[in-house]
Specification:
Layout: H1 12-20, H2 26-44, E1 47-50, H3 52-65, E2 77-81, H4 108-115, E3 119-124, H5 158-165, E4 171-175, H6 182-188, E5 191-194, E6 215-219, H7 222-232, E7 262-266, H8 267-270, H9 276-291, E8 295-299, H10 307-322, H11 341-352, H12 355-368, H13 374-397, E9 400-404, H14 420-425, H15 431-436, E10 440-447, E11 453-459, H16 465-478
Parallel strand pairs: 2-3, 2-4, 7-8, 7-9
Antiparallel strand pairs: 1-3, 4-6, 5-6, 5-10, 9-11, 10-11
Helix pairs in contact: 2-3, 7-16, 10-12, 10-13
The structure holds glutamine.
Glutamine (GLN) is lined by residues 130-133, 156, 176-180, 208, 315, 427.
């Protein structure tokens, strides 16, 4: 691969091999990706900020000391969702209220990526404060789906997924509170992993729903997720919710034999209504799995039908407290021309926060207010427990749970912006896992008849990331490989 022009096409592990063999330098890889970003960005708008100068400098320093195989991501450029603090760049969370926020410290994930030799290439677009499923709610404009520019990339980590599929970088980090890694990965056609709650530190990441949020990687293939997770997983003295449990080996993994693999298919998710193209693609994927000897068993998980209601109470409640700090005093842009203190708060928050975010704050504040707490938040927490039990019960008998990621393919812009409840309902496939806490892996199941990707997700017991990736490798080998996005 002497031609730098094509280096952007390399997946993460191929890029690593080339770098370690000195087929090309980290600087050449960075230049190729920056050129790719320059060509694709006007079409898709995946990045809020490209860190070109910083990336060039880091690459130069790495090249000066030469390839280091002991560093798992040596010379690998990675994009970061704009909720992680990266030193020297603003963290906006896709919100106007944080347009002037320059963090004074770095997220643990970002620090560990650097320690592993990675190069931070860009900060990617998202729905404001990670609230949404389409990246249409970013205060800085939407991101477009690289497979169909008139359609959304999914969300909230839409910039991360679009950038991966547009080959702007071989790896990306996003966050998943209710599907925000898995769903954009499915809608754009790449792989995405939501690790177990607590597997990856959230220090230095802007909080949305603290009992649900989890950081995780996106890449073009399942195997490419391993080195990304490896670099960041493990305990962190700065995040008490990060598990003390040591990381497993996520890199040297082998595809599980599909024969004898028992997969539980929750009826509550498979029996709903689907877009016909999505349904046909999913059915084809299921019959391929059966042909390879996997055992598919439909199971009842009756509590899943409450997951949308439960999630939107809990996520909104937690968001309302997490976002209280953006008041124009401690953080955020302060409004001009206010009359008194209360007016300053009100005006700053009204001008700085978008409609969807304000809606969630109102919803959450209501659910937590005295007299309503027992009826809403407490009840939701109780049902959440039952959803967790549904998961654990099913996973005692099956190796993994298999479910769709979205009942419809990437949709045209504006389809649901005036209809938030319908958009919330669309999250039914992904929300339950965050309520339960376990890991989930989203991967392409095939291309629908309309040329839009369709995803499937595998879910496992807590901290089963390694077996999950091994099963994911098996499925990836069975499902059709998606073509590159024509951009
Ligand atoms: N779509 C869901 C929401 O809007 C999930 C978002 C996320 O995972 N950050 O809350």
């Amino acid at each position: 691969m002497g031609n730098n022009y094509e280096l952007h096409r390399l997946g993460l592990r191929d890029a690593r091999q080339g770098l370690l063999r000195r087929d090309f330098s980290a600087s050449e890889l960075v230049e190729s990706l920056l050129a790719r970003i320059a060509v694709t960005e006007p079409k898709i708008g995946a990045c809020l900020r490209v860190l070109g100068d910083e990336a060039r400098e880091t690459a130069k320093a790495l090249d000066a000391s030469g390839p280091d195989a002991s560093k798992g991501l040596w010379g690998i450029p990675i994009t970061i969702k704009d909720v992680y603090n990266v030193k020297g760049a603003p963290t906006t969370a896709g919100s106007k209220i944080l347009s002037n926020y320059l963090p004074s410290y770095e997220a643990t994930v970002v620090r560990r990526l650097r320690e592993a030799g990675a190069i931070i290439l860009a900060k990617t677009n998202l729905d404001e404060f990670a609230m949404g499923s389409s990246t249409e709610f970013s205060a800085y404009g939407p991101t477009r789906n690289p497979r169909a520019l008139d359609r959304v990339p999914g969300g909230s980590s839409g910039g991360a997924a679009a950038g991966i599929v547009a080959m702007q970088a071989p790896g990306a980090f996003g966050t998943d509170t209710g599907g925000s890694i898995r769903q954009p990965a499915a809608l754009c056609g790449c792989a995405g992993l939501k690790p177990t709650y607590g597997r990856v530190s959230r220090y230095g990441i802007i909080a949305y729903g603290s009992s649900l949020d989890q950081a995780g990687p996106l890449a073009r293939t399942v195997g490419d997720l391993g080195p990304l997770l490896q670099a960041v997983a493990g305990r962190d003295g700065r995040d008490s919710t990060a598990s003390a449990r040591g990381a497993d080996d996520y890199i040297n993994i082998v595809a599980k034999d599909p024969k004898g693999l028992t997969l539980a298919l929750p009826k509550e998710l498979w029996e709903g209504s689907f877009d016909t193209g999505v349904r046909a693609t999913l059915d084809k994927a299921l019959s391929r799995l059966k042909d390879q000897g996997a055992r598919l068993e439909y199971v009842g998980m009756p509590m899943l039908r409450y997951s949308v209601a439960v999630y939107y109470v809990i996520a909104a409640a937690e968001a309302s407290t997490n976002l209280a700090r953006y008041d124009g005093v401690r953080y955020g842009v302060r409004a001009q021309g206010y009359r008194d203190l209360l007016g300053m708060y009100r005006q700053s928050r009204t001008e700085g926060l978008g409609r969807e975010v304000r809606r969630r704050i109102l919803l959450g504040t209501f659910a937590l207010s005295s007299g309503y707490y027992d009826a809403y938040y407490k009840k939701a927490a109780q049902v959440r427990r039952l959803i967790q039990e549904d998961y654990l019960r099913v996973l005692e008998k099956a190796d993994f749970i298999l479910a769709p990621v979205s009942s419809i393919p990437a949709w045209p812009f504006g389809s649901f912006t005036e209809d938030p409840l319908t958009q919330y309902q669309l999250d039914i496939m992904t929300l339950p896992l965050n309520l339960a806490g376990g890991p989930g892996l989203s991967l392409p199941a095939g291309m629908g008849p309309d040329g839009l990707p369709v995803g499937l997700q595998l879910m496992g017991p807590p901290f089963a990331e390694r077996p999950l990736l091994e099963a994911g490798l098996a499925l990836e080998g069975i499902f059709p490989k998606l073509p590159e996005a024509a951009l």
